[in-house]
Amino acid sequence: MYKLIALDMDGTLLNSEHLITDENKEAIKRATEQGVKVVLATGRMITGIENYLEELNLNTDENYCVTCNGAIVVNAGTKEILSKIVLGYEDLCYLNELSKKLDVYIHAVTPTKSLVPKMNEFTAKELHMNKTRFEEIPLENADKSVEVIKVLLVGPKEKIASIMHTLPKEVYEKYTVVRSHDNFLEFLDKRINKGFGVECLGQKLGINKEEIICVGDAENDLHMIEYAGLGVAMDNAFPDVKKASDFITYSNNESGVAHVINKFILNKND
Known about the structure:
Number of strands: 14
Pfam families: Hydrolase_3
InterPro entries: Cof, HAD-like_sf, HAD-SF_hydro_IIB, HAD_sf
GO molecular function: magnesium ion binding; phosphatase activity
Largest sheet: 8 strands, mixed
Organism: Clostridium botulinum C/D str. DC5
Radius of gyration: 18 Å
Keywords: Hydrolase
């Protein structure tokens, strides 16, 4: 019996119009009524998903979120942080220099705001998605005690795709590197990924990995899909994600999340 289902947001729970379908809402409601923990696992900050938590009634003290690709696990009601692993000032400077060599934009996400050396359309898009405050500041001028949740290199999708394969080996040795969006390449503490976040939450709740379903579509969902007792890819998922999954559901525009919940939690055909 599955006790927890972790859902990616963009490309998974949300359709192409960034909406939650009625079918998905109803399936999530029925799963929670059966006592199953429904957890949003996202690259976004919690500020970027609060409206969805409210829409799904997952904003109570009984609910949890895996945010920032696993860097922060938080109670959705009290906002108590269960787990937080961050980067520091030296990482910020190292990645800032890397961005200059690669000729891409950069910004850094802290617990209270984003640090933006130069505003651009891609950074503006990410700030809007997360509803975060920002400060325009050269990254080398940041406070040396700064806590950095993640650093993003941002730019046109072709540019981001190409630099993924040209990053120095030492970058992959130092950081978890995930492409969370066509335009975003994220750098986190080496220990961090969505799978780590889901595992931390499962341990806190006394839920084994065999009792967990993880659903996603993008490369930043790979770790949690591989970790879960049942790893599920959307029909619209990246090829590598589909290959790593145990089951492929309908697309995000066909209420694929509802199909998973109906089949594996509610035990009914849809």
